[in-house]
Description:
Layout: E1 7-8, E2 19-24, H1 48-62, E3 69-73, E4 80-82, E5 91-93, E6 97-100, E7 106-111, E8 115-121, E9 126-132, H2 134-138, H3 141-153, E10 161-164, H4 177-187, H5 191-194, E11 195-197, E12 202-204, H6 206-217, E13 221-224, E14 249-255
Parallel strand pairs: 3-5, 3-7, 4-6, 10-13
Antiparallel strand pairs: 1-2, 2-14, 6-9, 7-14, 8-9, 8-10, 11-12
Helix pairs in contact: 3-6
The chain binds zinc ion.
The site of zinc ion has 6 residues, from loops.
Amino acid sequence: MALSLPLFHFERLSAYPELLHAVATRHGGVSQAPWATLNLGGSVGDDPAAVHENHERLCRRLGVARNHLVTAFLTHSDKVAVVGRADWGQRYTDTDALVTNTPGVYLTLRFADCVPILLYDPRRRVVGIVHAGWRGTLALITQKTARLMGEVYGSAPDDLIAGIGPSLGPCCAEMGDEVVAQTRAVFGAGSNDLLRPGPRKLHLDLWSANQVQLEALGVRHIETAGICTACGVADYFSHRAERGKTGRFGAVIGLRPASGG
Ligand SMILES: [Zn+2]
């Protein structure tokens, strides 16, 4: 990769100059293996000074003040927090999704196989970010987040643009029997399209599982990155491909303040 701190951007979300969004990779930081190099996870055994420096580098690259970020300590829940300027620098507990309509409040979460979902309503100017592993996906956290954007800010599903980011792909998301059973219970007949045979067990298509729950709500504009973190472990952290010993890459979304900066 040419840039020292490369970022992934969704094409659809890049169309809006008022919106800042990005998914970082594992490149551009200072952490040593197995967290090399842009690890943003503070509870995966990495040197706290390195994690701090990685956050500084990402914020500099994005042009965002670090204390203007709002984040959450992820617990694979289906809880969504509505945040504003009073939450600057906050880290919510037991929360896996954040929404706001306040410019200058940047929402960020960390990933290593779980699905990052970025949401934007350009009409009402509302942003959302979701951390959806299989638990959150089966708890329909992405649909809940989009619905909450409607309840709190009046966002219509039809106006929403969703980006489904780099995460464990259907190629690698082998699941145990219990997860397969839960998938069938949640998605009913639709689960036939989400579960596909793998070499040993069934694989769950987490990208489609998040897409269909958005579509069920009426969201039509959905872009899937199609990047599997386990296949793409050279560029992304992958809990599964690295057997749990790895870092976390970041995703960020927020509205730029009208005055700029
Ligand atoms: Zn894969």
